[in-house]
């Protein structure tokens, strides 16, 4: 499991409360069901103060022969409800998520569902047993998520080109006098819907009874392509299935470029002058978005099941695939500030950075899922953001050959007319062909050569530095050349697979300075570096860059294999726990231990 979280600034007591409670909720549920929370990201900006975002990505491994579909096929085959009873919690949850919030909307709090992780664990195990031991009688399986039974059942019928007849009186209920409307739209948790072969209901009932769970036949598949709901012997709804699924109306909302976009495009680039490099470096590492998230991820059980190879804190989490010599790398990414400046470019950057994280871990990017978080799409400017972000994601995925295999959408993230930055969170998975290729970001040995992959430009718009110094973000987002991005990633991965790379780390928020510190501090090393640019540019957030370390004995082979003009040897790893960065005009010396104290201590201090 990975999570991508967004909160307001931590000078707000309510935001501190939200952070602590959200993390507690993720830890409490995730730890209880025995699924390791192995990675994620947390970012802080004022626009999320009243609209925090919690995006979760769950990655599983399945044998090809065990793949199941969410379909209801075969006239007369029973549809079975399994799991917890249905209550009124979560009714209109999907609707609740499709309106703007307001201070007067606190009464809607009842729309939030109540979860039971221990029942969830039992439900997961029972469903897996059905899949593994009774695949010959299982026809389809679907979870009950947004819009509950109505959504899951109509989707199963639509995918199969079938109809359904459901009897609401048979739905397990934990509250009295529930109407068919309430039962269909309830979003009570820990529930699944199965379609099985007729005559095998007793086997399924007995299996779930062993887990202490309900398994009840609530309907059957029909051939009329109608969605028929019966309660108390009367038909209370009779709707064409496809009207609820495939034939649902597609929105074509008006789109309009926001005034801010043209202003940002024409604005002079932000260029920091006369920086106290050491002071700025320390302040950046204390920013909550950059600071260590150890305080958060140590509340999660990320080693349960003992397959986690690379734990939280590196570029990507890596989990071993048992019974093979392979592993899966996983990450979530999105710098929403770039999307605020330029949604199309920012969308492409989000995909590219996710891929860099995967590559830096020694894996080949395979595919993405996206969680599209935006404001009110009924506003033309917001719909424009959605269109442009989707275009950027599409272009990057095509360039990097990472198909979009799933995703979800969360709109109307506004309160009292104030919306969030466009935040299309990218979840990406990659394959480590050989576990010996697994690479982490920390330097491994004193004397190793340090290389900067990619070119650095004076690009500070939308950066942590701009926010720190100006208290805002504005201007043009950093440029991105997808051909260069693809070439740099391919070269780094090729070098890793050839066994020539000791460490690899992508450069993102805070620029070269932050990435160099992270690589040095985790291995308790220092570094002596000379950069081919002005020292202030160590905070630039130019794209398509990595920091890699290489053994001295492998340098010639590494450079020959790499074959890129934008490969720069900049220094070497040292034992002295100091970071020394020089340019033609100046030099800065900082203590790795001092920076580590700031970086590790910032978030716990801010959350007090």
Automatic annotation (TrEMBL):
Q: Which UniProt keywords apply?
A: ATP-binding, Cytoplasm, Ligase, Magnesium, Metal-binding, Nucleotide-binding, Purine biosynthesis
Q: In which pathway does it act?
A: Purine metabolism; IMP biosynthesis via de novo pathway; 5-amino-1-(5-phospho-D-ribosyl)imidazole from N(2)-formyl-N(1)-(5-phospho-D-ribosyl)glycinamide: step 1/2
Name the top EC class.
ligase
Question: What Gene3D superfamilies does the record point to?
Answer: PurM-like C-terminal domain, PurM-like, N-terminal domain
Tell me which residues make up the PurM-like N-terminal domain.
1-62, 313-432
Superkingdom field:
Bacteria
Gene Ontology molecular-function annotations: ATP binding; magnesium ion binding; phosphoribosylformylglycinamidine synthase activity
EC number of the protein:
6.3.5.3
Positions with a binding annotation for ATP: 370, 407
Residue limits of the PurM-like C-terminal domain?
Answer: 75-229, 447-579
Catalyzed reactions: N(2)-formyl-N(1)-(5-phospho-beta-D-ribosyl)glycinamide + L-glutamine + ATP + H2O = 2-formamido-N(1)-(5-O-phospho-beta-D-ribosyl)acetamidine + L-glutamate + ADP + phosphate + H(+)
Subcellular location(s) per record: Cytoplasm
Q: Which residues bind Mg(2+) 1?
A: 408
Per the annotation, which location comes first and is thus the protein's main one?
A: cytoplasm
Which residues does the annotation say bind Mg(2+) 2? Answer: 143
Q: Which residues bind substrate?
A: 113, 187-189, 410
List cellular component terms (GO). Answer: cytoplasm
Set out the biological process GO terms recorded for this chain's protein: 'de novo' IMP biosynthetic process
Please give the function described in this protein's UniProt entry.
Answer: Part of the phosphoribosylformylglycinamidine synthase complex involved in the purines biosynthetic pathway. Catalyzes the ATP-dependent conversion of formylglycinamide ribonucleotide (FGAR) and glutamine to yield formylglycinamidine ribonucleotide (FGAM) and glutamate. The FGAM synthase complex is composed of three subunits. PurQ produces an ammonia molecule by converting glutamine to glutamate. PurL transfers the ammonia molecule to FGAR to form FGAM in an ATP-dependent manner.
Oligomeric state and interaction partners are given as:
Monomer. Part of the FGAM synthase complex composed of 1 PurL, 1 PurQ and 2 PurS subunits.
Provide the family line.
Belongs to the FGAMS family.
Protein's name according to its UniProt entry: Phosphoribosylformylglycinamidine synthase subunit PurL
- Species of origin reads Listeria fleischmannii FSL S10-1203
Q: Which gene encodes it?
A: purL
């Amino acid at each position: 499991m990975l999570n991508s979280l967004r909160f307001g600034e931590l000078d707000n007591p309510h935001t501190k409360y939200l952070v602590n409670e959200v993390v507690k909720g993720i830890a409490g549920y995730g730890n209880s069901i025995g699924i390791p929370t192995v990675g994620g990201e947390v970012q802080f900006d004022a626009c999320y103060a009243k609209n925090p975002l919690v995006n979760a990505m769950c990655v599983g491994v399945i044998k090809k022969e065990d793949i199941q579909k969410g379909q209801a096929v075969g006239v007369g085959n029973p549809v079975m409800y399994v799991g917890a009873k249905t209550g009124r919690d979560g009714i209109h949850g999907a609707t609740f998520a499709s309106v703007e919030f307001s201070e007067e909307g606190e009464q809607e709090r009842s729309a939030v569902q109540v979860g039971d992780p221990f029942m969830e664990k039992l439900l997961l195990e029972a469903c897996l047993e059905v899949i593994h031991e009774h695949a010959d009688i299982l026809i389809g399986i679907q979870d009950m998520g947004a819009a509950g039974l109505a959504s899951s059942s109509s989707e199963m019928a639509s995918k199969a080109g079938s109809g359904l007849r459901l009897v609401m009186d048979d739905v397990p209920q934990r509250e009295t006098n529930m109407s068919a409307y309430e039962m269909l739209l309830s979003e009570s948790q820990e529930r699944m819907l199965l379609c099985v072969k007729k005559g095998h209901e007793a086997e399924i009932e007995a299996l779930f009874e062993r887990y202490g769970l309900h398994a009840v036949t609530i309907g059957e598949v029909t051939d009329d392509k109608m969605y028929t709901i019966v309660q108390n012997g009367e038909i209370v709804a009779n709707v064409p299935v496809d009207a609820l699924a495939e034939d649902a109306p597609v929105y074509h909302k008006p789109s309009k470029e926001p005034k801010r976009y043209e202003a940002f495009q024409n604005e002079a680039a932000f260029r920091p002058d006369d920086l106290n490099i050491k002071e700025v470096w320390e302040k950046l590492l204390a920013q909550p978005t950059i600071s260590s998230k150890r305080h958060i991820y140590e509340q999660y059980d990320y080693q349960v099941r003992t397959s986690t190879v690379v734990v939280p804190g590196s570029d990507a989490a890596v989990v071993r695939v048992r019974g093979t010599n392979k592993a899966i790398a996983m990450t979530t990414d999105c710098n929403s500030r770039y999307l605020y400046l330029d949604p199309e470019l920012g969308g492409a950057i989000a995909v590219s950075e996710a891929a860099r994280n995967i590559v830096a871990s020694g894996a080949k990017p395979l595919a993405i899922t996206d969680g599209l978080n935006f404001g009110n799409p009924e506003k033309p400017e917001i719909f424009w953001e959605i269109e442009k972000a989707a275009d950027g994601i599409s272009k990057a995925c095509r360039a990097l050959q990472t198909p979009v295999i799933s995703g979800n959408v969360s709109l109307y993230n506004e309160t009292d007319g104030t919306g969030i930055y466009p935040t299309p969170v990218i979840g990406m998975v990659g394959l480590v062909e050989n576990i010996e290729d697994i690479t982490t970001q920390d330097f491994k040995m004193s004397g190793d050569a340090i290389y900067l992959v990619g070119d650095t430009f004076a690009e500070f718009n939308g950066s942590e530095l701009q926010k720190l110094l100006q208290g805002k973000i504005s201007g043009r987002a950093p440029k991105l050349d997808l051909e260069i991005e693809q070439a740099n990633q391919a070269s780094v991965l090729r070098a890793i697979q050839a066994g020539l790379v000791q460490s690899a780390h992508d450069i993102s928020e805070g620029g070269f300075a932050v990435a160099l510190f992270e690589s040095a501090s985790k291995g308790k090393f220092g570094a002596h570096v000379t950069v081919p640019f002005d020292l202030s540019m160590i905070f630039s957030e130019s794209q398509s860059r990595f920091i890699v370390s290489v053994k001295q004995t492998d340098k010639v082979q590494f450079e020959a294999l790499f074959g890129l003009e934008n490969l720069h040897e900049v220094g070497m790893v040292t034992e002295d726990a100091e970071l020394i960065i020089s340019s033609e005009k100046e030099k800065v010396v900082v203590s790795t231990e001092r920076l580590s104290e700031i970086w590790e201590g910032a978030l716990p201090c801010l959350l007090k």
